[in-house]
Design brief:
With 95 residues, this protein is of the alpha+beta class. Helices cover 19% and strands 34% of the residues. A 5-stranded antiparallel sheet has the order 1-4-3-2-5.
Length: 95
């Protein structure tokens, strides 16, 4: 493309401090069918989540590649509730 200011750079990707979980597709479909009007940009929907005894305000994002909502679990929650990659957890969300 000609015109405008062109920037080109190299970068090294890094692992973000948050871990993500994917919602079961059937549950995501029900939420999307009934509450899509609540989505903000990029399929973001506000939610409250609970893992173990810890509850926090968060959001879920609809991912078209996996056809479900993804939810981040920040490091503070992971440490408090001993959440580890690959270890199954129970999550409760309110949307």
């Amino acid at each position: 493309m000609e015109g405008g200011i062109k920037y080109e750079f190299t970068a090294v990707p890094w692992l973000h401090e948050w871990l993500f979980v994917a919602m079961p597709e059937e549950m995501a479909r029900e939420i999307r069918d009934n509450l899509k009007f609540q989505e903000e940009g990029w399929g973001r929907m506000k939610a409250i989540a609970k893992v173990g005894a810890t509850e926090w305000n968060t959001a879920i994002w609809f991912d078209t590649k996996s056809n479900t909502y993804l939810m981040p679990i920040k490091s503070e929650i992971r440490k408090k509730e001993k959440v580890e990659p690959g270890k199954e957890i129970t999550i409760t969300i309110w949307v």
